[in-house]
Design brief:
homodimer; 6-stranded mixed β-sheet; 3-stranded antiparallel β-sheet; 55% helix; elongated
């Protein structure tokens, strides 16, 4: 490249650097040529366009045109040294020119050229030159303003931080609700250094640590909250569930061990046993003096409890039950507290009297002596390493004709007289079975609650981190805060809305459960099953999204996602596999439907329904299906109508599909199985509808206007994001048109941006103390 | 209840059990009343209907009507003893009646009554009685055939097992492809007892085990497969990738350690260094004598490599580079091999000469002496426990003015002369940066491959298990095999189709990568980024679904999901965060679009595009959008057209949205960020289109007709399940109507059932040996 200087340039220092000089006439081109070459994106045709345009300009001297040709030769582009030199010239000049020059690269170039006060400087900054340069800039497709900022190293003022719109304390009061005191108590306890997280412990040590934690909680009376006062309990099931929900902000192994001991094992004695069982056992269960197991699941029989194989045969002679494992598939499996700590087990077995089977019943079977050795006839094995929850000692149990006294039958719902006469206050074996399984409902309520707590922990970590972590950003500005990326909000805030929605639904479920009666028992059971499934899957999705949102830091054990993810994974399976539970929900809805119309014959009913489904479709109003204004899209009546329509239509079409199969000769079991996916979808639609309605009910009671405003946004986001997620269904069934579904997407975007300023306060309102949260990345 | 006997019953034993006798006239009713009460679902109005209907029947004696009234009193339903007695009567009689009686409960009842040979038996089985009973049965809504089976304890013949439609060996040959030999070699090696899985190891032991495994692989020449023959390598990049892909059937810590050492660290020397570096280091890298690190990521700079802060300042006096960590955010973080084993590190740092910055370059920095002690100026820390991959020793590095010789600059793309003159064959700093980052492309190709392998392992375990595990089922039949549940197939088989589709796409990517040229480098980079994102997210979804499909057994460490899930989780983040990579893909597509139209000015182009998008919509043909016949839905041209249309439209609308924002005054960075979600969707649509096309290309070369048939089904399932998953978009944009999207759902159902018989063979064709698979539940 030429380094000789033309006469007209001698008085200018603006166009020299590192021994490289640039002709004055070329100065106006320098910024855009630098940007073009530095990005390395000049295509041959772009180069040709520029050549043609510029070579025609009268203000360029022949030697400048020659230099330019050199610069625009794709075979030998400017060298690194040359580009660096250009940049220095531009930056040096940039400091001297005004801010108005920053509007475009051409304008910046012209200003640089004007710094020279001689004739040449004037001649090459004429209007004609300006027009030509602007055209070149457009042809290059480089956008001016930010490119000049890049060139000059300018700094922009950052976005004003926005203020939170509500008081965190008040929101927390609202979320804590009726059981605020016990929640605070649990949090205070768990903030004690004794409960500090430890990562990477071998499972043996981890199990002992969790046992000690469990005992520490029992010492504070938390174990026996739901037990009768006569056994030193508080007779307060609501408090027990709230305590469990709060413990789930901490290590989930602790929650599950706590739940196994005081909820499942103790609960089986409380709910299936009678006064003498309560008096004999509950006190020691509540203090953890008597660690125990809830031995229902068998290797071959997970969800299908009715078909378990363990037998409890009544021996009239000795007035004992003989508990026996008849086959390997009948071994009790995945039993919490079994591998190491349990002394007594509630064992579910087929009751047999005089070779006659009476179905599944629960028996108390001692499995270890006080030294921890297995009792005669009992074989125990360790389930070993698990994906998570390694602080819980899951094990296997086999019984070889183990004899227990007749009194060890938990006999609230069925009794066997010394002579071997079977009696039960519930005549129907199937009703009796489901009543006994009712103990599982408490487990499902608790798992739904702890899945929600795990989601809240994950959201608190990811949103707190996103509020201070920066990555990428516009040139020469501080990197952008993650939460200022719309896509980051889009990923996290609908999950935050889910957590709020589920919070209201969970309170509703706990209320229903703690105040349940014989009349609404089935309703509670159905909703517990549904919410457990929805809440656990939501936890899986939330924790995953939050982990990914924290990048590599989210992968470190200290930041909690490892444990949250691995521990909560099994929530989708235990206390009932989610897909099985959702089919239970669907069955419940079909039964309700049948009862609703129980004046008609079943087939008549189905005929009626098929008509009614058709009618509902034809009634869809095009004005509504096309409505896209914000007022409509944020109208709770629109949300409720959409959720109800979906559920109702799925219910009617499910009934119709099943009926058609039956009338074609399928048996109803096969017909049901054939429609499984449909039924699962129905169940999910049902749960989402109830969740939305509970969110609305909760909202109706909020008096603080600021809380109300932000909660309405969350409700709108929950409703619209759920509709958006299922837009395929709504569009397919003509409930809305494409324009409307696009408008809903726009509203979800908008709601995410409206909630951006409150995101940190909304997770702070979950009130998870720093000690419980762990996760150093959550702290700025 | 009355136990007295009427005269007419004395000669019958059919209606007595356990001291309870049933009037002959009531016998026909017994089966349906038993079923109704045993299920416990008789509503008051049902009871009223039955009462009304039956009390009017002339064939019932007054005392029988009285007994019936007692049975139908909801206030005192039949006792357990009574129900048990009924059941015995029914079963005893059932053994004597023919199979035709099993059609309905009424028919069964009538047959039981007919067993008595007296007048009464005849009188209560008249046609009139038959009709009345059938009506009652219908009113009760109890379906006959299966209820009778339940009552009588009948056994059904099980479904015929279906035959596999193709030969597994041939399919495996096809999948193994060009690199069959190396794949077999790796599998043989990994089947050695040395490589037996060990669960629950403390991380220190686990790291040493994985190091030993890595060394064992190196001893077989696997480490240096891609290195020049001059350095004892095989100069075969394709084999290296195939080996890596196969290793990923085993412990993923091993894959990643292997990849860090031989791929990233060795690859950086190979690709960024020159002959003297190759000669000095590659041999010992390939044998693991020289364990090393690839130190790019910093605490504050994960995805955004351009802004890393570590500095390498050139000191002319001593002709050394001085490597320094200027701030905590600049510490090297998550660096594999750093915590324990690495001796040398390829450190990425900002090159500085004479206070001038030249951008990111790579330097070889010794970090430990041969005794394992950190060298002066180098500080090393352990990242500690991670969610997974705890067999890899990730660590942190800080440099305090560490001096290295000038030769330690990996100088293929830039050199610094002894005097401090900087030269580079690539003038554009941004092109140089991306060329150097090209080393990451190999990492992405490998991660995509190992994510696919992890998916295949998960599918093999879950499908093998589902083929023999039974749970629930019709009454009195063997429980149903999981894979015979349509919903189970629905959950797993589309993921199996994904694995096959990605297999073809992965081969394409490996080919592209190993044969890349300067001309297609960017294309390869874009596809590697896209496939890595899609394949890693697909692995997350697949492993999760497979774990849940295996219930509690899937949660035990021995069944592999724990490790697969935790280890592969980070695939979404490392070697580039998926959302960042997908934006890279979208940027690439936008650039291509620009170049395609590079004769026009950019704005003109955008105008053109907005028109073209509009045109495309108006051209949608209602005949096509409504077409629902199978021939059309399984026509590969329909699939390709749909995938292309989606990608094209998303591309044009993305360009238009960005343009509108720019023309409204946003800078292009902000405009791009504002459309992030749209761009990610575009990128995903692009990758899915390429995957589909690669599936089709692969299919075109298959000559075995049986393989072809099953692969066509998998291709159809892949294409239709992806369209179904995105039906919201296709419906929203008028590409199909509701009827068509429902028909697609039907086809997906049908394809799943067609593929059911081949599912086990299709996973067997992945050829994962038992020793590599682990997972006892995969064995029947």
């Amino acid at each position: 490249m030429s380094t000789e200087k033309s006469a007209s340039e001698k008085d200018s220092t603006a166009n020299q650097s590192a021994g490289i000089s640039v002709g004055t006439g070329l100065l106006p081109l320098l910024p855009m040529l630098y940007i073009a070459w530095a990005d390395g994106i000049l295509t041959p045709s772009e180069l040709a366009t520029i050549q043609e345009k510029l070579q025609a300009q009268p203000w360029l001297l022949p030697e400048e045109k020659k230099q330019l040709r050199g610069w625009l030769d794709p075979a030998s582009p400017p060298s690194t040294t040359e580009l660096m030199a250009w940049l220095k010239i531009i930056r040096r000049a940039g400091r001297q020119v005004g801010t108005e020059s920053r509007q475009s690269l051409a304008e910046l170039g012209l200003q640089i050229a004007r710094l020279g006060s001689d004739d040449r400087s004037q001649r090459c900054t004429t209007d004609q030159a300006c027009t030509a340069l602007a055209e070149v800039e457009e042809a290059l497709g480089v956008s001016g303003k930010e490119a000049t900022a890049e060139l000059l190293g300018l700094e922009y003022a950052e976005k004003e931080p926005q203020e939170t719109s509500f008081e965190v304390d008040r929101m927390q009061l609202l979320l804590d609700g009726e059981f605020r005191e016990i929640r605070e108590k649990v949090k205070r306890l768990l903030s004690d250094p004794v409960f500090k997280y430890q990562y990477g412990l071998p499972k043996e040590e981890y199990r002992e640590l969790v046992l000690e934690w469990c005992r520490a909680l029992a010492q504070q009376g938390l174990g026996s909250l739901s037990y009768p006062k006569a056994q030193d309990g508080a007779d307060n099931l609501g408090e027990f569930i709230a305590a469990f929900e709060t413990i789930a902000f901490h290590d989930l192994s602790l929650s599950i061990k706590f739940g196994v001991q005081y909820g499942l094992f103790g609960g089986s004695i409380l709910n299936l046993g009678t006064a003498s069982h309560h008096e004999s056992y509950l006190r020691q269960v509540g203090t953890l003096e008597l660690p125990g197991c809830f031995a229902m699941t068998e290797l071959g029989h997970g969800s299908n409890v009715r078909d378990i194989e363990t037998v409890a045969r009544y021996d009239k002679e000795t007035q004992e039950f003989v508990v026996h494992t008849p086959a390997e598939s009948a071994r009790k499996d995945y039993i919490g507290n079994a591998a190491t700590h349990g002394l007594l087990a509630t064992v579910f077995a087929q009751l047999e009297i005089d070779a006659e089977r009476y179905g599944v019943h629960a028996f108390l079977v001692p499995i270890r002596d006080s030294s921890g050795a297995a009792l005669p006839g009992v074989r125990i094995a360790d389930c070993g390493e698990k994906m998570g929850l390694n602080g819980v000692d899951n094990g296997r149990l086999w019984f070889d004709n183990v004899r227990i006294p007749r009194d060890n039958l938990l006999n609230r719902f069925a009794n066997v007289s010394p002579e071997g006469n079977y009696t039960s206050p519930i005549a129907s074996p199937s009703q009796r079975f489901f009543t006994m399984l009712g103990t599982l409902v408490g487990g499902r309520v608790s798992i739904a609650a702890s899945a929600l707590s795990a989601s809240k922990s994950a959201l608190t970590i990811a949103i707190s981190y996103a509020a201070h972590r920066r990555q990428f950003g516009p040139v020469d500005q501080p990197e952008t805060i993650l939460l200022d990326y719309p896509s980051h909000c889009r990923r996290l805030l609908p999950l935050l809305a889910n957590a709020y929605a589920l919070d209201f639904a969970q309170k509703h479920l706990s209320d229903l459960y703690t105040n349940r009666t014989a009349d609404n028992a089935r309703q509670v059971e159905v909703f517990a099953a549904g919410l457990k499934a929805v809440s656990s899957w939501n936890a899986t999705a939330t924790i995953q999204a939050c982990r990914e949102a924290c990048g590599g830091k989210g992968y470190l054990a200290e930041n909690r996602f490892a444990a949250l993810k691995a521990d909560s994974d099994i929530f989708a399976t235990f206390e009932g596999d989610n897909t099985v539970l959702l089919q239970l929900v669907a069955k419940g809805l079909l039964t309700d439907l049948k009862q609703e119309f129980n004046e008609m014959k079943f087939l008549g009913l189905l005929k009626f329904m098929s008509q009614s489904a058709t009618t509902a479709i034809s009634e869809l109003n095009p004005v509504i299906t096309r409505k896209t204004d914000q007022e409509h899209l944020r109208d709770p009546e629109f949300h409720t109508a959409a959720f109800r329509y979906r559920e109702h239509r799925l219910l009617l079409t499910a009934a119709r599909r099943i009926k058609r199969r039956i009338s074609e000769g399928m048996d109803s079991y096969a017909a049901f199985i054939d429609c499984q996916e449909h039924l699962i979808k129905l169940a999910l639609a049902h749960v989402e509808r109830v969740v939305l309605e509970q969110f609305n009910s909760g909202l109706a009671e909020v008096t603080d206007a600021n809380l109300s405003t932000v909660l309405v946004r969350l409700r709108d986001l929950y409703a619209l994001a759920r509709i958006e997620a299922d837009k395929g269904w709504f569009l397919e069934n003509g409930y809305m048109e494409g324009g409307k579904s696009k408008a809903i997407r726009g509203q979800v975007d908008l709601l995410c941006s409206e909630l951006r300023c409150d995101a940190v306060a909304l997770v702070a309102s979950f009130g998870i103390r720093e000690q419980l949260l762990g996760a150093p990345i959550a702290r700025a």
